[in-house]
Amino acid sequence: MLELATLGLLLREPLHGYRLKQQLELFMSSCISVNYGAIYPLLRRLEESGYIVTLGQGPGEAGPSRKTYGITATGRDRWRQKMLEHPHESWVNTRSRFTIKFFFFSNLESAERDKLLEHRLMVCRLRLESLEIEPMPADRYQSDTWKRHFAMLQDEINWLRSQLRKEQNGPGAEEDLGVITTNHRSCQLS
Asked: Can you spell out the DSSP letters for the chain?
């Protein structure tokens, strides 16, 4: 995910390492924790792979000089490949990965955005279906946690449907899509 985000940020504009760290923290902190010790080794690997290049080097404020990085054509191809792939990973990681991808949606074609939204919607619906067949925990706190997860999942499905509708109807398309309901007895939220 860090590679995807780094290439995506460099796709928007050249950045030096410190500014890149700031940008990653700004938008990724809601998705995953940013391990700053991994950023500079990642930049070296991306440069060695030909995905990014050093555009220049300037003096640092209080330390060593700062390299400014830019993305290459190969890096753009790598970014697009990472955007469109669907690796097998945990539920938490798939949610974080989709959030990062959505952040960069403006750099994709409409058909690519549609495919990513439809895939995420399918994953969420399958998750919802698997939750619906599970028995409700007897413990109040476990039950409340389960209900909260269920409500968050329903909210994400509604949001994805709304985003798909906007994408298909063009910019500014706003429709009331209603709330997804279920007949599962344990999903009665108060």
From this structure: -HHHHHHHHHHHS-EEHHHHHHHHHHHHTTTS---GGGHHHHHHHHHHTTSEEEEEEE--SSSS-EEEEEE-HHHHHHHHHHHH------HHHHHHHHHHHHHTGGGS-HHHHHHHHHHHHHHHHHHHHHHHTSPPPSSHHHHHHHHHHHHHHHHHHHHHHHHHHHHHH-TT------------GGG---
Cα atoms found within 13 Å of the Cα of residue 20, Cβ hemisphere only: 30
Give the pLDDT score at 143.
92
Name the one residue in this structure whose structure tokens are 């990085």.
Answer: 69
CA atoms of 20 and 15, how far apart (whole Å): 6
pTM beyond 0.85, yes or no: no
Distance from C-alpha of 77 to C-alpha of 81, rounded to nearest angstrom: 6
- What's the half-sphere exposure (Cβ side, CA atoms, 13 Å) at 97? 21
Which residue positions in the chain have pLDDT lower than 50?
173, 175-190
